[in-house]
Structure formats: C-alpha cells, structure tokens
Design goal:
The structure is a homodimer. The first copy, chain A, is mainly alpha-helical. Chain A has 27 helices and 20 strands. A three-stranded mixed β-sheet of chain A has the order 10-12-13. Chain A has a three-stranded mixed β-sheet with strand order 15-16-17. A two-stranded antiparallel ribbon of chain A has the order 1-2. The longest helix of chain A has about 55 residues. Chain A is elongated and about 95 Å long.
Chain lengths: ~800, ~800
C-alpha cells in the first residue's frame, strides 16, 4: 500500500520538485509553521507564514535559518491557511446511511419534513427574541447614559467646566466598551466584528472553529450591547446575522455540546449537510430581524451560501425570516405599549417614505448614478484604510489586553470628538412639537426652546440618527454640520471596524451615507433655487446611504431588497439598484468589499461562484495533491493509527482502494473514508482479527457517528494497544462507496463547478483505469485567483 | 465494437428481460409508437401510448394487435414522452472549446461580460416595449368595443331589444377570439396558453420544440391581444413571461434563423448553457413587465430554472428586470401624457394601498389563514376541473378547426353570461366624481347619475376589475353581485384555460379571489357590525386574490414577492406569505399545481429539485439504460452513419471508448460525443482515410458548430457516399474528453443530485475499471416519482 505522506505541491510549474515540500517544524506554542525553502531561481518568493502570536520572536529566529528575507509584510493576504477544514456538504452515502434511508417509510420522510418546519419556526422565534432583547437593553442603557450626561451638562453649561462632563461621558463609554472588549478578547475572540465574514465562510463550506457555539452567541449578544451602548460608531445589525446562525446551529441539533445536554431529538439533522440548511435559515432570520426584511434575508442567505437552489428549502428559510421579524415586531409592540401594532418590523426602521412626497423623476437618474460613484469611491477608501489598519492590528495589536486598551481608546476618542464637535457647533434648531424625550435633544448653548442638532446626530443611537437624516424636514441640519459629521464619523467608523468588540458596519455606513447624501440634496436645492422636486433632502439621504453601504460591503441583489424592504416602499427599487450597481462597479475597481478583505486577511480558502476566467489551461492533474495516502478495504489498525497520528499530513479524507496484488501501481478506487469516521471506528474498536472474528460486541450504527458529531476527538485521545494495532479494520460498511471522481485531464473550471455545485470536500482524480492519482480539496481550488496580472497562485500556510 | 441498439428497459425489476424491449413500429404519420408487450404476470400494466392525432384510428387498429386492452384513459399523465430532448446545460469542454478559452485573454473575458450586460439591457428594453405594445393595443381595442356596445345598449335600453346588443357583443368578442385562435391553432400551436409551463420546462432543461422562435413570439403577442380584447376570462401577464423568454433567446444569439439574418455578433453565446442564462433573464423581464415586480421576476426565474446560483448572473437578471419595468413605465407615462412619472411599473397595478388605512392586527391572522385554506380548496377544485377538461380536449378536441370553434364558443358564452348577469342584476351605484370614461360605467336601467356595478365588473378589462375590487370604497359592490360574479367567473376561467388561444391564468385567478375575498370582508363587517378594523373590504380582496392565485399555481417565494411588489407595500408581506403557504399546503393535498398538471399531461420529462424521498434503494445500475452504443476514438464513417440513421435508437450522446483488443468486454471511457456534433462532422466531411490523410480541406472550428446551432440538420439530409463510408473519422478533438461518470452502486438520489445540479444531459455509468456499462439520461431519472402509494415508475412513450 502506498503510504507516502501527502505532500502539498507549491507550484504546478515545477511538479515533482521535492524542494517544494513543506517541512513542518513544531513550534513551542503548538502551532506549526511551514517553510517553503525553494531556491530563488525557482521564480517564487520565499514565503514564510509565521504564527501571529510569536511574530516578533520568529522574525529574529528566522534570520538565522534562511538566507533571503521575505520582501513583503507578513500579513496573510497572499496566503491560504491550512488550519481551516472544510465542511461535508455532500452526504456521506455509506452503507449505514443507505440502510437507514431505505428503512424509512414515506411517512418517516414526511415527519422529517415537518420537524424541519418546526425547527425553522423555532429559529425564527428565538432569533426575534434575541433581537428584541438586544434592542431593549441597548435602549435602556442609552437612556440611562443620556439622563446622567444630560444632567451633568445642564449643571455645567452655565458655570463652565464642561470638560468634567466630557470626562464623565468618555469614562462611561469607555467602561461599557471595556466590558464588551474584555469578554470578546478573553473569552471568545471569534465573536469580534459583525460575524458576517464568518457566516459567509461557514455557508461557503469552511469550518471556522467555534463560530456556531453557544458561548460565541452569549459573548456576541452582550458584546454588541456594550459596544452600541458605549457609543462606538457601530450597529447591532451585523451581529444579529451571526446570532441567528448560532441559534440555528444549536436548535437544529437538538442538544448543546457546551451545556452537555442532549434532548435526543432532531438526531437525523446531525450532519453538515442538514446543519448548513438551518444555518442559512438562521442567517436569514437574523437579517430579517435586523432590517425587517424577510425577503432580503432569504436573498442574503442565497447570495452568500447557496450552491443549489431548492424550492422547499427557500420556502422554509423564508418562513424562519417571517417568524423572526414577526416575533420582534410583536414583542416590541408590547414593549412600546402598542400591542398588536405590527409596524416596526426590524431593529432598524427607515421610517415610512410617503411615495408622493419623495417621487423621483427621470432626470434625477444621472444624479443618483453620480451618488453611486461617490459611494463607491468613499467605500473603496474606507476599505483601503481598514485594510491597512487590519494589517497593523495583525502585526502589533494581537495581545488581548492591547486589544481591550485599543477598544477603550476608540471609545474615549469617539466621545471626545463628538463632544468637541457639539461644543463648537452652533447649529441650533427649534424644538418641534413632535420631539419627545426619546429623541434626546440637548439644549447646550442654544436659546430656550431650541436644541443643538449636532448633539442630536452624535448623541442618538445611530439608528435614530439615520431615521432623522431621512425624515427630518428640510432645514433641520445645516450643511456645515453635515459635512463635519460625515468627515469625523467616516474615520471613526473606519477605525472602529475590526476592533475586538462585537459590532456591525451596516449602520455606520448608512449613517455616513445618509449624512453626505443629505448634504448633496441640500446643495442641490441651493443650486436649483429649491424647486419642488429637489426640495426633499431626505430622498438624497436615502440614496447616499445606499451608495455608501454598497460601496463598503458590495452586496448586490440582497442589499437592494433589504434597502427596499427597510424603506417600506418599492418605488425606490430602481434608483437603489442603479446606485448599488454603480457603487459596486466603481468600488471594485479600487478595492475589494470589506468582508472579502477580512476573509482574505484570515487566509480562508473561500470558493467563489466560478473558477477564475482564465484558468482553462489548468487541469486536475496540475491542481491536485499527490501522491495520496490510501487505505485498503480491510486495513491494519496500526497503519490507520499511524497515518492519522502523523502530524505532517493534514488531509481528512482517504481514498479506499483495491490494490492489485504484487503491483506497485496505485489501486483502483472503491470508496472514500473520512478522518472523523475512522476516529469513531477506532474509538468503538470496530476491529476484526485476522481470522475475521469481530472483536467489538455490537454493530456500529449511524447514531454513534451522530453522537460524536461535530466535535470528533483527536486521534491522540484514543488509546490503541499494541495488540489491537495488529488487528484489521473493515472499512467497507462505513466508507462512501461512490465518491465523485474526475479524470486527470478535466479542466480547472470543470473541476471547480463540480466541487462547488455539490459542496464537496474531497474529489478524487483518477486515471483511465480508475486508479487514484490525486485528490482535490478546497484549498487546491481556492489557491488560484485572479490578480492584477492574470491568474495568481496563493501560497499555503499552516496557521 | 459493441454496436447493440440502445434498448430502453421498461422495468428495473426484471433486468435483462428481453420481452420488455420496445418495438418501434413506424406509423403512417411519421410518429412512432412503442408497445411494451409484457406478459400480464410481470405485474405491470400493459401501456400503449398513442399518437394523439391518430387516436381514434389507433384504438381500433390496436384492438387487433393486442389481446388485453389498457384499462385506462389514454391521456399521457402516467407516461413520459421520448420526443422531448434535453438541452446541454453542461459545457461541452472538448479540445476546440478549451483551445478557444485558452487563447482568450483576461480582456476578452471582460468584453464577454460586458456584452452579457448589454444583451440583458436589450432583453429588458424589448420586453418592456412588447408589454407596452400589448397594453396599448388592448386598451384601444377594448375602448372601441366599449363605445360601440355602449351606444348600442343605450339605443335599445329604453325601446327593448337588448338581445340585439347581446348578439352584437357576442359577435364582436367571438370574431376577435376567432382571429386569435386561428393564428394559434394553424400557425403555432405552441403559443397556446400562458407559456409558463413551457418556459419552466425550458429552464429545467427540456427542449420543447419551437418554444423560443420568433414566429411563436409573433403569434403569442397577437394572440394575446385578440383573446384579451375578445373579453375572455384571461390575462396578458403569463404570455409576457413567454414573450420575454423568446426575446432573450433571439437577442442573445445575434441572429434570427427564421429571418435568415446573422448579425455575426454574440457568437460566443450560441450554446445551450449561455442561452439558458439569457432566457432566465428574459422570463424575469417578462414577470417584471407584467407585474412591475423586478425582484419577483428574478425569484421566479430562480425558482423555476436555477440549478446553480451565481451572483453575477442573478444581478444581470435583475438588471434586465429593472430595465424592463422601467421601459414599460416610461413609455406608458408618455402614452398617458404624464411623461417622466414612473408610477405604473407593470401591466397590472394593484394601486397604492395606503399603509395606515389597511393595517392589520394580530387577531386577523387566523382569518387570513382560513382564507388561505379556502383559496387552496378552490384552487384544487379549479385544477381538478381543468385537468379533466384537458384530458377531454386531448381526446376529442385535437383538430385545429375544432379548437377554433371551441374558443369562439367560449367567447360567445362568456359574453352571454356576462350580459345576462348584467341584465338581471339591479346593483346600481352612484357615479362618483372620480370615475372617468376609462372606468367604462354603464347606466343600463339605473337612475341617472348611477351605474350598474355588475356591468363594471364584467365589462372592464380584468386588470381594472381587480383594482376596483381592491380599492373601491366599502359599499361599492353588494354581496349578491360578488357571489354570482365569483361563481360564474370561476367556471368561465376554468373553461378558458387550455383553450387554443394565448392567454394567462394569473389575472382571472386574482379576479376570482378578489371577488370572494371582498365578499368575505363584507360579510365579516356585517357580523362584527362594522368596527373600524374590519371596515375595509379591499384588504380582504387582496388576501383572497393571493389565496386563489396561490391555490391554482402553487408558486411560493416568487409569488409572495410579486404580490408584495404589485401592492407596492411591504406591510402585507407576512399575511400574503401565510396565505400562500396555507393555500399551497391545502391545495397540494388535493391536486397538483396547474402548471405541473399541464406539464405532466404533456408527458414532459421534468426533473424536480430532488429525487423522490424513498428512492434510496434504487441505484444507477437499475436506473441506467444499457447496453450503450459506443464509438471508438477513430471510428468508421459507415458505422456512425448507420448508428445515427437507426430510427429505433434515440439517445443523442455516445460514449467514446478505448476497446481492449480481442476482447468482448465493454471499452474504457475516454469521452462523450453528441449526435449534433457527429452531424456537423459528417456535414463537413471531416474524414481521414485509412492512411490518415485528412480529406477535408480545412480544420473544423468551433464556429462551424455554432453556425449549425441550434437547428442541426437530420442525418437523412446528409449524403455520404459509399466511398466515404469506408473512411475513418477521428473524434478525439471533438468529443468531451472528461464526461462525468458514476459507479454502478451510486444511489438514485446521488445520481439525481449530480445530474440536476450540473444540468447534465448524459451521465455515464462505469464499472470499477472505468468501463461503460450504462448511460443515465433525463428520462431515466424523471421516470421515478412519488405517487399515492409510494414510488411509482412512469412508462416511456415515443410521442
């Protein structure tokens, strides 16, 4: 049997070059580092991927061991991490599975279908509840903060000494943010940020460790409450999507591994294929709760996750979304003492745009397109700045305590900047009849019966500010206020995204866009001396918000629908679509979308919809990893244990082959078995002796695999005695006997399409006689991407 | 080489049973009939599929030849027609194709991408124009008809003799319908109906002959004008979807085969894969123009057609939809003298629902669900009646002249029934200030200043009636009028659908639903003595319309979005969704959706999203057709011509194999070649002599295949001399060298998933040594479906 290590080729241009073989050197902190010690003449840079934690030490130690230093910053954009495993989105149709499916009656399938619906309903309900909880707690905290600070300001406005108010404000904000940052940095770093990139990766098929755990959800929820109440330039909408996904992953499994509680229900759904479907529903429910956009939620899930459209699945996702927005709506209506009034469908509500007052005309279309282009440019600038900031953070701000300090610093600076701008602005507006306590007006140095409009913009929750920018009557803001606000908020938001706090970028983007959009509208009505159609700056605020958000996140159809649903008015469909399209085209020319940048910087092997356009000249032969470690149908336990224990190999699937006796040639494919399956087999000691007597007492069932899912123990935790090592293991019942295969000549786009459309994890490459010659995994495909100078190949790294 | 005929096994339960082999008997009319002459002991019914045209003769002639007569009606529901070929939604990646792709630069791909956008823009624009044309012509014709009939009625109302008015009306309508029916029945029968089932099939991958031709479009457009203006209970929305698809198929090819005009552009797109993408865009543009629902259009295309979601494709489809609704809107605004006012986005416009006046409350939800159930029941009844009617039509009304007469009859009956109901109703309503000439009020026997409301409901175009049911103030209709109207219109619409005219079922369904929904609302306000929340019956009309439409067509997400977009208000999202869901669940319990029924009655091999749930115990071995006709890499021309000319085989793909010398075993797969490719090769005489001298002067290029696409000539039209038959043909350059293969043990769901997700046409089944043992095509998979008693197998028929 061929037991050669799986060796990752570095370059297809020099196959068989042994110098390209990665040498794994265990580091002290347990991570591994691969150094590709190729000669410079090979035409490839020397790439060294360092573990981020031990960065500085490694750079010095590296100097000794290699001659040429890498001439690039050791961020991870041009690398592909090997630490991310794939999810099995293709059913493992082994004998056990088929037997179970065949035993099941038509009625059984119907029951399964019904439980899927029940789960989706539950997902929607719980997601809605969480959204409701976050919303109410944030409101309460913000209210308390407002009262405290307001009283303090009122006390000091006349007597002087507002700096004390400033300090009070900054301290309040910093402490809230500190709490949020501490729980994220020390307890669950994966809960940082909006979670959208992580969910994108999960739906794409990449297993991001700990992303759908209960602990992550807890940290996320409390983290987002702290950071929003702490006055950071963040929103609570992005984290809702992540929260929904975690809820879905939890509910659908009918147990909590963290709480060690198994309800013994929904056991059928304990596999990646089914779980993904529910996570899609959860993400959709999250979007739906965040924006009151159930259709937008469905489209978000599809845009990010779908590889194959299924009507019933989509319909279920839609159901979860609807239930989610409905639950949120219902409970908020009770909270607001308007029980039964279902008019607040999401966390953010753009308010009603009356279609008559904000109609648009044909000759405004070019203006909208210009605004789209501005949004694209500003978005690209935002992403570019954030990109460099993130690299800086990867290099220098990687210790949890540093991260907490940075978050507190940002909170303090945000408070100070806001306060300074409020202090120096003298944009007083009359206090209208309809302004209630909820609008947090601050009088400051304004005359009685007036309020400071800059203070409103800064002091409100961002959601409220967006709404007032959309709907306040013309003249509510003066242009200078808006300009200054845009400028400061832009940089604050950019600095804030990527902090070690749970927070989203949707609302800040909308706010920046709404501010400059309103400014655009006001300037326009100056130049056209205020004729009626230009009169309403709220319309331009909406378009600006769409442009800015589109320029940053680059979502397409789903964002259009989310915006339309949040607006509650389909009239703006065409302008919003045009604006988003322009923003995307202009933005893509300069920089990638924010989420894509972060995914790349994490070196995630993310698969896009299609293979790069110019990749037809690559074939499976060049892409695949080879040689492959194979097993026989009946394999010696010792061999299996050794293979699994070998830390230098990292593939998780092993072809099962029929070896031709007395032949050195690779064997003929007869199946595929996963590391996780082998682990379960070893754990249950499903061994046969040479004489074929079964040693294990009971027949292994699908349930044993499901119980171990998804946290399969590592091979090190399984003890196999020396006697047992001599036993044999019969894999034929557990392997997938019909893995997908492709011939060696298959072009990369064709391999890619098969892989992506079916959500595969391993694809066998065979020769004309069905003998295994290689294995294609996600990383082999994700390596190739379109760079500026045509097709580029990413390097592989172990961290 | 194995030259056995491709024999379709009838039953997997008795493989190798030669008695199951179909015997092809050429009939006089050129169609073929297969009789499965199995013994009754085999447990299978004796099925005889007869050509519908020669039905009666065949029944008599059949009596002689077989002993047991089939004990079932010879409709085609339990059959699968072999006459429908599949489309190649998987790229044929042969050497020529790969060479072209590899030659193309990054810039070249970008240009292609831009031309895709241009084409989508064009598709949207032209579809919008067509919608506009249909709308304006129908309005004009209806206006003329109204004036003529009105004058006549006014003349006779006082003096008596209204029967003359009736006759005038009936004759006018019948003649219009006659014109419409004649062009459909005699020139292009495929243009009958709404065209939605046909487009569903096309997007699913079934080649419906002539469905996307220019002639079909012409007949469709004029047919729909005639049938709508002729006062039938039909809508013009369904045909718009078909029209959009035809426009897309035409524009994207850069030529018209019918007009023999080749613009020499867009040649790259001349293959099924690319064409399908554009047809999706066209269908979406059609929906968008029909309902002003661009997002709904995209979702419709995805729900019906998508196998694989691609962000850029979806975005392009959305672009086409937007352009389409925008174009329609713009030109209609010019027509209505309100240039630049973009408030009429679709052919049907539900009018603005003011969100305040029609808010709903929590306790109305159960009512909505009840309405959904009613809609589901009525929909199932509608479908059931229409099913039997269609079977009746297949049996007895298959001659074109009979079809025209039936259409005229329906038109006359519709006119008579309407007239009678108007005549006997005395539901007079005061003529409001806002009613203009456009509302076609008829005074009849009402007092001056009043009008007959029944006349309004019947005399208006259905679109107007729907709108007035939604928006007319409470009290505009009395309950008896509505009840009678619902009843008559229900049966009229049911009779009308399936006539040989171009017409859609959307609007009649909406109208029926709106009528009983309004009735429901009125009754409700009676019982609750008119408290404010129940006051507006328009809300219930909307819910009723959704319920009825959902009960008939059973669309899910797309219909929800279409309804929401047509309403212009997202508030109703949740109720509409609940209603559609209930209607679908209730309806599915009793009967299938209308489109599915018609697809089944056409015996189309339609592939659903997933394999039947209980089909895990079937494997590729049982599903596949075998033995398979294979070719060698270098094959004798005579052999190829003979194989292609053999009328008893009907597979269109041939595996290319490497035969082991002096062996009877099947050869190893090395490629797959299509009938259409072989035809082009034969036509261009790409022969080599035994001595390998190339006979053809020039190297065959991809262009030659594209020029022949999509109407490849039949083999009979290609003359191959006796000398040429002795030559050889080298297939290696033209075959697809990397066809997808599966092992024999692969379960049906797995085969299905691969086949459906990648849009395959042929899937090779191989043994463990990569030798061809069978071929799976669409029909092999579509045969299995869930019946009432578990998994059922459909029989195959040649017509």
């Amino acid at each position: 049997m061929n037991m050669a290590n799986i060796t990752k080729k570095v370059s297809w241009s020099s196959r068989g070059d042994d110098s390209a073989r990665g040498e794994a050197t265990p580091l002290l902190n347990g991570t591994e580092e691969v150094r590709y010690t190729r000669q410079p003449s090979g035409g490839l840079f020397h790439i060294s991927r360092l573990s981020t934690v031990d960065l500085e030490e490694e750079i010095t130690s590296e100097e000794d061991s290699v001659r040429t230093r890498p001439n690039m910053i050791p961020h991870n954009e041009k690398l592909l991490s090997l630490k991310y495993e794939s999810l099995d989105y293709d059913n493992i149709e082994n004998q056990l599975f088929l037997e179970e499916e065949r035993r099941m009656s038509h009625m059984g399938f119907r029951c399964l279908e019904i439980s899927r619906w029940v789960i989706c309903g539950l997902i929607g309900f719980l997601t809605g509840l969480i959204a409701c909880f976050i919303d109410i707690v944030v409101e309460k905290l913000a209210g308390i903060k407002y009262i405290v600070v307001k009283q303090n300001i009122e006390k000091f406005t006349e007597v002087g000494g507002l700096s004390i108010s400033l300090i009070l404000w900054a301290v309040l904000n910093s402490s809230l943010v500190m709490v949020g940052a501490i729980i994220v940095a020390f307890f669950e770093p994966i809960a940082a940020g909006s979670g959208i990139p992580q969910i994108k990766c999960y739906l794409n098929g990449v297993k991001i460790p700990r992303v759908v755990r209960l602990k992550t959800l807890m940290v996320k929820v409390f983290g987002v409450i702290c950071s929003v109440a702490g006055g950071l330039a963040v929103g609570k909408e992005g984290p809702m999507i992540h929260s929904g996904a975690v809820v879905a992953a939890g509910v659908s499994q009918g147990r909590s591994t963290s709480l060690k509680k198994d309800f013994k229900i929904f056991e059928y759904f304990r596999r990646d294929t089914e779980k993904r479907d529910f996570v899609s529903a959860g993400a959709a429910a999250g979007v739906s709760a965040a924006f009151g956009a159930p259709v937008g939620g469905v489209l978000f899930s599809l845009e990010e996750g779908a590889s194959f459209w299924n009507q019933m699945l989509t319909w279920r996702i839609f159901f979860a979304s609807m239930i989610s927005t409905f639950t949120l709506n219902f409970f908020l209506s009770i909270y607001n003492n308007k029980t039964g009034d279902l008019s607040n469908p999401g966390l953010i509500n753009f308010g009603r745009f009356d279609s008559d007052s904000v109609a648009y005309n044909l000759y405004e279309i070019p203006l909208f397109i210009i605004m789209g282009a501005i949004g694209g440019l500003l978005g690209a600038l935002f992403n570019f700045l954030n990109y460099w900031l993130t690299i800086f953070r990867i290099r220098y701000v990687h210790r949890p305590c540093l991260q907490v300090i940075e978050a507190m610093l940002v909170a303090a600076v945000t408070a100070t900047v806001s306060f300074t701008m409020i202090y120096f602005s003298n944009d007083c507006q009359p206090l209208g009849q309809d302004q209630t306590k909820d609008d947090y007006p601050l009088q400051l140095f304004c005359a009685d019966g007036e309020y400071n409009s800059m203070a409103t913009a800064f002091f409100n929750t961002p959601e409220r500010s967006v709404r007032s920018l959309f709907h306040n009557p013309p003249g509510s803001y003066n242009p200078l206020t808006l300009g200054l606000f845009t400028l400061t908020y832009f940089f604050l938001a950019c600095w804030t995204y990527g902090l070690t706090v749970s927070a989203g970028v949707f609302i800040p983007s909308l706010l920046i866009g709404a501010a400059w959009g309103r400014l655009f509208g006001i300037l326009l009505s100056y130049f056209t001396s205020g004729s009626s159609i230009w009169a309403d700056p709220g319309k331009y605020a909406l378009i600006g918000a769409a442009a800015q958000l589109g320029g940053i996140v680059r979502m397409t159809l789903s964002l259009t629908v989310i915006m339309v649903e949040a607006t509650g008015n389909v009239t703006f469909g065409l302008p919003i679509m045009l604006v988003l399209m322009t923003a995307k085209i202009v933005g893509d020319y300069f920089a990638e979308g924010l989420y894509d940048i972060h995914i790349k910087l994490q070196s995630v092997p993310f698969l896009h919809y299609e293979a790069p356009a110019t990749s037809h000249w690559l074939t499976a032969r060049e892409v695949m990893s080879s040689p492959v470690t194979c097993f026989n149908k009946v394999e010696k336990v010792g061999t299996i244990v050794n293979t699994l224990s070998n830390t230098s190999t990292n593939h998780n699937g092993f072809p099962v082959v029929i070896q031709i006796p007395d032949s050195d040639e690779p064997g003929m494919v007869c199946g595929l078995i996963l590391r996780s399956q082998l682990i379960v087999l070893l754990k249950h000691k499903v061994f046969v002796e040479r004489a074929r007597t079964r040693l294990s007492q009971r027949k292994l069932q699908l349930k044993d695999f499901r119980d171990a899912y998804p946290r399969f123990p590592p091979i090190q935790s399984i003890h196999v005695s020396q006697d047992e090592r001599e036993c044999m293991m019969d894999l034929s019942e557990f392997m997938n006997p019909t893995p997908y295969t492709v011939p060696q000549e298959t072009s990369l786009p064709r391999v890619f399409k098969l892989f992506r459309a079916l959500g595969l994890r391993h694809l066998l490459v065979v020769d004309s006689e069905n003998r295994v010659v290689g294995l294609v995994t996600r990383k082999d495909l994700a390596r190739y991407h379109m760079g500026k100078h045509g097709l580029e190949e990413l390097q592989l790294a172990q961290t």
